[in-house]
Design the sequence.
């Protein structure tokens, strides 16, 4: 069989609990790689947190991190950055609405103001034991901008203020300085303008020579829809939100029921 690109989201798709991949799913993906197919995780997570999940499957697994702003190819790491104008806008808008924004490099998290404890706890659920991510409070916008050459993406988490989150998103969308998405109803993901998981996938298709019709994408959240449209074989997890199921050509079992493994076993055999 000709080589395929296999792309999976992490949370709600590859991972069963934000930190672990099941043995059955890992085995199915390794079998696919043994047979010449290429596998990448694709996530909104910062690179370091995405890499540790990819490595649970195999050191051969590639990474699309930061919602497409960072990805691996042939030993090279490609970066796209948010930029000073976008960082300034996010800082101003979120501060005006009393929200907390976190900004990511490959292996550091930056923020300006101390977030509420429940917001910090929501962020830390994605940090596996054994991995230390640098978390740095920079205090001011000027200090944040000292890291402009390494910040790829960010997130605003607001589980208790849906109105403030919606108003912030509307204000930032009107400025057209970045791409905005969401992996859950209580967050807003900040991505470089013109970049998302789909653009990273397009670049990988061009670099590998593997076309859309031999691209398999698994996902469950709104930020997976773009890359699903860039795949000939788009697969919604059983636990996916309705909008993802509407876009996907196929549906499989949930992330806790080895949905990826079940689909690949059937598709390739």
Sequence:
């Amino acid at each position: 069989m000709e080589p395929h690109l296999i792309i999976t989201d992490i949370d709600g798709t590859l991972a069963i609990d934000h930190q672990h991949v099941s043995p059955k799913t890992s085995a199915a993906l390794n079998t696919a790689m043994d047979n010449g197919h290429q596998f990448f995780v694709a996530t909104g997570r910062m690179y370091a947190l995405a890499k540790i999940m990819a490595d649970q499957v195999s050191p051969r697994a590639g990474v699309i991190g930061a919602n497409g702003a960072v990805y691996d190819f042939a030993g090279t790491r490609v970066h796209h950055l948010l930029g000073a104008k976008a960082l300034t806008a996010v800082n101003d808008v979120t501060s005006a609405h009393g929200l907390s924004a976190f900004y990511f490099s490959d292996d550091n998290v930056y923020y300006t103001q101390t977030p509420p404890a429940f917001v910090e706890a929501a962020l830390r659920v994605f940090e596996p034991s054994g991995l230390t991510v640098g978390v740095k409070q920079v205090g001011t916008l000027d200090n944040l901008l000292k890291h402009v050459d390494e910040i790829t993406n960010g997130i605003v988490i607001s589980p208790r203020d849906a109105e403030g989150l919606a108003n912030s998103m509307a204000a930032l969308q009107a400025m057209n300085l970045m791409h905005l998405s969401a992996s859950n109803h209580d967050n807003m993901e900040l991505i470089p303008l013109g970049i998302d998981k789909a653009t990273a996938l397009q670049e990988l298709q061009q670099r590998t020579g593997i076309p859309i019709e031999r691209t398999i994408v698994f996902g469950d959240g709104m930020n997976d829809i773009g890359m699903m449209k860039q795949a000939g074989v788009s697969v919604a997890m059983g636990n996916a939100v309705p909008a993802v199921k509407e876009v996907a050509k196929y549906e499989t079992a949930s992330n806790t029921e080895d949905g990826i493994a079940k689909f690949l076993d059937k598709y390739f055999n």
Summary: The two ends are 11 Å apart (CA to CA). The domain at 84-192 is CATH 3.30.1240.10 (Hypothetical Protein, Haloacid Dehalogenase-like Hydrolase; Chain: A; domain 2). The chain is about 35% helix and 20% strand. The first helix runs from residue 23 to 34.
